Amino acid sequence: MREYILVQGNGRNIPKEDGIFGINMRAKKMIEEKGQGEVVNGTIGALLDDDGNLLVLDSVTKVYGDMKPEEYAAYAPIGGTPKFKKVLKRAAFGDFVPEDHGLFSEAVATPGGTGGIRNGISNYSAPGDYVLTSDWHWSPYATIAGEIGRRIATFETFVPGSGGELEFSVSNLMDRVEEILLKQNTLVVILNTPAHNPTGYSISEATWGEIIEGLSQILRIEGYEKKAIALYVDVAYIDFAGDEALYRKFLRVFEKCHERLLPIIGYSFSKTLTMYGMRCGGSICLAKSKDVAEEFRQAMEFSSRGSWSNSPRLPQEIVTKIYGDEKLLERVVLERKEIRDLLLERGKAFEKKGKEIGLPMVPYDGGFFVSIPHDNPKEVCRLLEEDGIFLVPLAKGIRVSVASISKEICKSIPEAILEKIKKLV
Ligand SMILES: Cc1ncc(COP(=O)(O)O)c(C=O)c1O
Q1: Ligand 1 in contact with 234 (CB < 6 A)?
Q2: How many helices, marked H, and strands, marked E, lie in the chain?
Q3: Number of domains observed in the structure of the chain
Q4: Do residues 41 and 177 share a domain?
């Protein structure tokens, strides 16, 4: 036992190993002992083919090979190359043009979607502040917040509707926002949609309308004149929800934002162009004034300088090449549709089987994951591991990565999960 401290905890709980990594190691060990066919690894957050190989868009990887050092070896500007910034907006927004909706947008490159979340939190909250997100959420939000001295607060996201099915609770969200804003002047709210990780849920356009109306109303409360909200919309899975144009329609709702409500769209090329390891993404604000948009750009670039400096240039140049060649872009979009269709078939197959047998599920719409609510997820996962099924226990249930297992397995594991749940009753 050491009597002195080197690493400072700083309010963080640093585990000995990453939770999912540990489960993966156990899955690998069982594969060695029993063989690949005896093990289901539903833990991996990347889209794999039915044999467990990473699915990569060929049309994208071909561009890598054609790159010349003079195109990528130099530093990129801190906020991203000017061409990349334009392309980032197009990739994130599709046909949506913020200026047509009275919005001012500025884009800043980040290393993956993670970088944007980090700098979004650091700039729009103060040390010690709460950052609000859904109770079902991607756990790195808490890691990122903790790293920079912030804390995550959550709202109960899904409550049973009149038909008994779980529904997104706008009122729970509003209650938490109002409560936190009593104690702090700015609040970062992170919503991950469409095709939320870990549930696959997508916020509908109608619900988006209620959220924007509700948040704007809170900002109109007497005495709240100095309060402001940064709404970080993490769209990491936007191209794995369904029709790409349809799933961007919600963006127009932001024209109705109160001027002190600032939407920031966090986009990632990790999944959308299968460039996970390239670390490419960005944040784009949709401000009601030029001044707020300019402040966003300056602050986000400043934070980039103070965290990772500039983002990698190579992926910015690759993405710029793809979007600068309409034929190539068409091929990329088509190829992506093929892998998205494969993914959605898996998710729907799981959902269908789950419904048939009465397995409770958080409403799945699309994306890499489905979730099963349970109050003892660790024990359910432990029992499943005995049968060679490796899933991820979360605070409120079990996460299944339909991205990493075949459609056939998606049809068979709901029964296995339900059997273990029944065992624990
Ligand atoms: C919900 C969510 N947001 C953001 C990201 C950002 O990923 P990256 O930094 O790899 O682009 C991920 C990746 O798994 C995610 O699941």
Answers
A1: yes
A2: 14, 14
A3: 2
A4: no
Residue 350, pLDDT > 90, answer yes
- Find out whether the beta carbon of 190 lies less than 6 Å from any atom of ligand 1: no
Q: What is the CATH number of the domain that holds 261?
A: 3.40.640.10
- Take atom 14 of ligand 1 and give the residue whose Cα is closest: 45
Shared domain check, 372 and 278: no
Would you say the CB of residue 301 lies under 6 angstroms from ligand 1?
no
pTM over 0.70: yes
Pair 99, 242 in one domain: yes
Cis peptide preceding 263, ω within 30 of 0: no
Same domain, 339 and 249: no
Token code pair at residue 186: 């700015």
Mean pLDDT score of the chain, rounded to an integer? 96
- Residue 1 falls within a domain, yes or no? no
| Residues 6 or more apart whose Cβ sits within 8 Å of residue 422 | none
What value does the mean pLDDT take over residues 129-138?
98
Q: How far apart are CA 62 and CA 335, in angstroms?
A: 13
Q: What is the CATH number of the domain that holds 410?
A: 3.90.1150.10
411 Cα–ligand 1 center, Å: 27
Phi, psi for residue 235 in degrees, rounded to 5: -105, 40
Provide mean pLDDT across the span 205-223.
97
Q: Which domain holds residue 370?
A: 20-54+335-423
Pick the residue whose CA is nearest to atom 7 on ligand 1: 113
Average pLDDT score over residue span 366-381: 97
Q: From ligand 1's centre to the CA of 279, what distance in Å?
A: 10
Å from CA of 7 to ligand 1 middle: 27
Cα–Cα distance measured from residue 27 to residue 29, given in angstroms and rounded to the nearest whole number: 5
Q: Which atom of ligand 1 is nearest to the CA of 117?
A: 4
Is the Cβ atom of 270 under 6 angstroms away from ligand 1? Answer: yes
Question: 83 with 200, same domain?
Answer: yes
pLDDT in tens, 280-336: 999 999 999 999 999 999 999 999 999 999 999 999 999 999 999 999 999 999 999
Last residue of a domain, one of 302, 324, 346: 324
